[in-house]
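ok so for the tutorial part 2 we go from a plain amino acid sequence to predicted structure tokens. step 1 is just haveing the sequence, like this:
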Amino acid sequence: MDSRDADPDASVTTDLVIVFGLLAATIVMFAVNKPRMDIVALLMMTLLPLLGVVTAEEALAGFSDPNVVLIAALFVIGEGLVRTGVAQRLGDAIVRRSGKSEKRVIALLMVVVAGLGSVMSSTGAVAIFIPAVLRVARQAGIPPGRLMMPLSVGALISGMMTLIGTPPNLVVHGELVRSGYEGFGFFSFTVFGVPVLAASIAYMVLVRRRLAADEPAPRRRRGGPRVSRWVEEYGLVGREVRLRLAPGSPWAGRRLDELKLRARFGINVLAIERQRPFAAEIVEPAAGTVLRVGDALYVDFRKPAQNLDRFCAEHRLQALPIDVEYFADKSRSVGMAELLIPAESSLAGKTAVVCGYGDVGKGAAEALRGSVIGVKRGTEPVMGDVQSEPLRAGDTLLVAGPWRAITRLKTDPNEIIVLHVPVEAQEVVPLPWRAPFALGVLAVVLGLMIFNVVPNVLAGLIGCFLLGVFRCVDVNAAYRSIQWPTVFLIVGMLPFSTALQKTGGVDLVVQALSGAVRGADPVVMLAALYGLTALLGLFISNTATAVLMAPVAIALAEQLGQPPHAFAMAVALASSAAFITPVSSPVNALVVGPGNYRFMDFVRIGLPLFFLVMVLSLVLIRLVYL
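step 2 — the prediction. this is what the tokens look like for a chain of 626 residues:
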């Protein structure tokens, strides 16, 4: 007979020691990040049933937990907002509206990222905004370090805005439901998040000069070249323009090969921006492409356009000049790449025009067909009509066109080598014309959740299905968008919650907490719970912290005869208050490099902010629940 079966009390004591031992080992491995957190969680999910603390069914219950499925669905919905350009457009709106005022930039940035992060992954929101914030800093002359930490703070506070703002909210909500209580509503967090956001904006504006020195942080060299650098190196400034076809233009209704623009005017059409019912679409130019009134042609003038105004008047065109910053920003639509002609290439001695349509390799022809806009020999650009310039072995070519064409380029070692694709390739929006559909799906999902039409998990799954129907996200992109380590972290840590409850661990922690502040005001108990949750969050992820602390909070509230929602809310808010170190949250880690921060910068700025948010949160919890 098993010794545990013989003595129930001993069984409880033995199991409790095992659980606390495994929990201590988990925290240590989380703190040193070896192995990865999701691997640690899955290891513990295996050990707990093997050691007899929980059953196999209890260990695997997380895979069928509705909140876990909902979290995965929210990752897919967030990917829909990224692929259709909704998130990027919000970043561009900040650039347009903030001007050069540091205070306005910080306030707008934090409001927008908090709003976006409340309906999608906060980590994803920060990743989306970093390039936009760097552009804002460059254009406004603001050191990037003064904007990156406000960006991360706004993203963390987004978890305090809605039920789906961050996984810990859903974890705590799920624990309330499992304990027999009504869960949180969709906007239960908003009454706390909005005041916290306002206070945090005021704080970040006040301390902004302590965030970074007056000199901008040095520009990073990693990640490849930028389009703006190529525009300068190849002497493209002034050559690249957009020509919009006005009503009555003789070009409208005609094919590109009929117009013979390159031969007659020295014009090379790189891409065509065509208005669709909901958004502009970038069309790849081909010989048979028929132009329409309203089309905007991205063109490269091979011959100097000395009388551009007269040229536009003759052909009923509207000239829209492109400067360096414009070309860099619009690189999400029009792409570039650098190519190299190897020594043995058959392209040597031929012009780009001949190679594009002549008897050469298919890959080389596609690379050169009507898209070469610059040639360098050594470090010096070739001036004049590069399309008619005979190519030489060792030449570096700059090609341009829609990103769809650029991404098709492939290296052929015998003919042509793809040297570089710019860092802007990471910012490409593949489906901008489907943005209205993505926004509509988001509105449907939020409506279903807000009005409790269906369970939240069904609302999320309906949103994923609709995004697929409207082709905002394909199946492969949906699977890639889910942060599987986060999902498995939650699934693997949920058995700890069950184990702590079964073995009396929750009761032990509750007794320790209540004994430490015996007879104190409930707010003092809330402060102790908030502080313990935040302290634990310094060493392990906020999701794992919520899994461990949610049952403790509810049991503590029951012992004290206080509303469990108050204590559960304290755990949820503390889980999002990860301001103190750069390793407290992936959100903080993302901005360390762009902001040129050190570890102590987060401690110096984040610690006072943590106490400010803690005091404000406790006051609000008392007003709402106690």
